[in-house]
Design goal:
66% of the residues lie in helices and 0% in strands. It is mostly helical. Helix 1 packs antiparallel against helix 2 (60-116). The chain is flat and about 85 Å long.
Amino acid sequence: MSAAEKWTSAHLLSPASRAIHLEQRRAQLLPLADDLRRLAREMDAQLKEMEAIQGDMPGQAKLRAWRVGKPLFKAADDVEQVISDLISFNARFQQAYEALPEQREEKRRRKALAKAGQPEAIEPGSTGTVPAQQQQEFGDVFDGLRKGA
């Protein structure tokens, strides 16, 4: 993709394109977040060094410095959150649109084999019965219990 072209939703359909997009955005946003965080720390230190304004209550200057500097720290956090959100989008897209059809096809195949009566379609442990060792361990304590009663 050339520098003149913009990313479109069609570009994000392939795993390779999504990976490229994520790395490009990370390369763009991480320096921005670092710069905002550096600037926020410098501004916070400078605001804390400022003298109190005439008529301030005790501690009001520090509170004012914190309140004024807080949006810069939030901006840096928000830029870092964008990167996390892009990673989440990539994972969710892969799970919902690439892996899900394969999982459903596998489930259909197992179900068809089970209907045909082939034993390899049945997964071990899915019968819902209690193993003999566990029955011996608890004895007859749970024998009178029924589900939903």
